[in-house]
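Lay summary. Proteins are chains of building blocks that fold into shapes, and those shapes determine what they do. In this project we predict the shape from the chain. Here is one chain we studied, written as its sequence of building blocks.
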Amino acid sequence: MKILKHLAPAFLRRRDLEIQRRLEHLEFSMFRLDAAFDALVVSPKFVAADAVGFNGQRHRKRMFSDLISAIPFDAIVETGTWLGNTTGYMAQTARRPIHSCEVNPRFHALAKMRLTDCEQVHLELSDSRAFLENLSRRDLAGKCVFFYLDAHGYDDLPLVGELGIIATHWGRFVGMIDDFRVPDDAGYGYDNYGNGKALTLELLRPVIDKHNLAVFFPAASSLEETGARRGSVVLTPKGELSQHLSSLASLRQCPT
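And here is the predicted shape, written in a compact code that computers can read:
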């Protein structure tokens, strides 16, 4: 009985955390379905607007604009098309070829319908890791590429694998990750799927160290940001590209 009394509080805490995670997952799923329905009914074609793309975040858009102005990217690669809002925004802003993948057949079909007028956009229904491996064997290999990683949100978290593939196959790249924890600014939201699956520097540390990557966070505080106020991180190999990034007013470098 003493053992049971000792174990019971820990068991109840684990049970409560599991219930909390399940409720959060359900809430997140309902949010995505509501957003998909709204897009289908209200905006069946992509239309640019301040609240569209990059979570409606003004400073995130400035970060992207600064990056494409400072670095001559040959193409843009996105994982996690979802509704195609950020895909369409990047296509109209950067005027470069965009390759994007989505693992959910319904969201892929919806994005394909909404982005049909964007000739530079190439959409694939695929797991993001298989998608990146395939791109590494095609004409994008060896080119300077901007990667926007936003395929998280499902039971499987592909982020570590995605970044490892990118850093292995591309010598010149800049990667931006959505929903990432900004360590010194709690006002920025980030994803946490439990059991060591929070989107933090600790999760990516092995890849960052192995490939000698420089780390940058938004220079703007969350209080200045608009829209959903989701956190982000920008990664690039140390050297020429990281020097370019260190000169951008919209980014601040994190000591590694």
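What the prediction tells us: The chain has a mean pLDDT of 91.
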